[in-house]
Amino acid sequence: MIYLKTEEEIDLIKESAQVLGKAHAEVAQWVKPGVATRKLDAIAEDYIRDFGGTPSFKGFNNFPASLCISVNEVVVHGFPSGYVLKEGDIVSIDCGVKLNGFHSDSAYTYPVGEVAGDVMKLLIATKKSLYKGIEQAVDGLRMGDIGHAIQSFVEDRGYTVVRELVGHGLGRSLHESPEVPNYGKRGKGIRLKEGMVLAIEPMINLGVKSVIQERDGWTIRTSDRKYSAHFEHTVVVRKGKPEILTTFDYIEKVTANTSLMVEA
To answer: Which domain CATH number covers 44?
Structure first.
């Protein structure tokens, strides 16, 4: 069942999303060579709890951490660990916050120091594709319109779209119906209705689209071990123009890389 949110519920998700955006910014300041990913997880959890929230991911289906931290060829669901970030890495940081009974969810992929030119182009294209998808989150359109906008944008630039993992609805639960694929056909799929709250999250690969799940049951990596990028916002379907509830503004105030500040 798809739950349409009231304006009061949307306001509560916005409050959660503000804490989430600021938690991301706290972490962003530490995304640099020489920092272990486990430290990033501790920073996020402390910040979220200090502001009255709880990390949405920790304990979700027994996930062991507050952040999904996915480095280089890891697409999503990577574990924080003793791995130390190094120059040229990219790292996707996915975080959720539950506050006042409602979840928000967003992800951002960072370059660590200077990265290769083709990798930076992947990050920029993936972030732009997120906003292309969001533009289609309008009452009366179809779910396939979101996926088609993302897919056509990145495939035109030579990248591939992961098929096995999709976005989702969210609200009182972290994962609700409907699923939000990052590929699709215009005019196909369920009709979008005002009040749907969706996590739209392109996962885009530099190489082939196929992925492999590691033995830990969580970590997803590209089958060819080429880099993958991931960006995500929590969005409300509206009439005329969608509303983005999460924010990258706090992240981009504390990071020096201006090339990722472009939205479209």
So the answer is: 3.90.230.10
